[in-house]
Amino acid sequence: MSRPQDAHPARSFFPFGNPFRVIAPKGSRMSSQLLALLQAFEARLAERLSKLMVKNLELPVSDWDDKWIDVYLDISRNVLDICNAFSSEFSRLSTCNLSLKYALHNFDGVSSKLFVRAYSSLDDWKHHIHSMNPRIEKCSTILDNLMGSLDLPKAKNSAKGKVLMQAMYGVKVQTVFVCSVFAAAFSGSPKKLVDLDVADMYSWAPAFSRLQSLISEEIRARLSNGKFSVLIELEVIDAIVKELNPSIKCGAETIVTESLLETVEELGKAEKKLSQGLDLLAKGVDGFFKVVLISRDDLLSAPTSAKAVKNCALGSNANLKVVL
């Protein structure tokens, strides 16, 4: 004897009826519209499934030579170190900015006590902004290590290896140059700049040479003219602070004039612009740090998983690799 619910199995699972009746009507004939819809769906499904199995994958990590892996790990470690040094400088500059914010807060009042506090805060800013970050000073050693590793190992009898080595060389040249610019900007020393000579065999060599010449000349010119930083925002704030200090040093004798208020307003705008710029730079360096960190992790973990896939391959499909 059958149970009552067995009489309508579809309705028990779909309380509002069988939804598949909409796309699968009674009868074996299918309209041209439904047939086209089905074919389009199956084509998309086949394409997605095909993408999971890639033939002749270019430069798979599993095919990397051990010496290439060692070179990349050594290079990326130095890059992570220099990113950490730059991040520490962003933190130092942000801390200095707190003194500016506190000074601007005190300028909102008119009492001599608040002006004394403002003067003290600006004095603190001057003291800390001109101090040196020891981690930035050590960047020269890291840059020397990166410079020393520009000559990559030869990839004999390996077309893929040659492509990999040339790509790594291009990335390293760009990384070394950008890092040297940051180091020079943060330290106020043109000695941190490096001059890289790229062979003409690389199609990007002329563009790089022009960029390097333009930026290096600008930085050296600014620092040789007595500027303590190539960061324009810092120079602007430094000039405003020097203008404000004599006006508010006396505290009780400070006279609030329209000129003084305009100067304070300029300081507020300059501080805001500097804060925004530092935030953008910090996010950029942090993003680059994460990319390098993830690439190191992928490089260390991918060979094992790739070999496992290879071992599981069967017959003519042995040259296929799963892409997850």
UniProtKB/TrEMBL annotation:
Top-level division of the source organism's lineage: Eukaryota
Keyword terms, alphabetized: Membrane, Transmembrane, Transmembrane helix
Any single Pfam family the record assigns to this protein: ROH1-like
Compartments (UniProt record): Membrane
Membrane topology listed for this record: Single-pass membrane protein
InterPro entries the record matches: ROH1-like
One GO cellular component, as annotated: membrane
UniProt family annotation: Belongs to the ROH1 family.
Classification via PANTHER family: BPS1-LIKE PROTEIN
The protein's name: Uncharacterized protein
Organism name: Lupinus albus (White lupine)
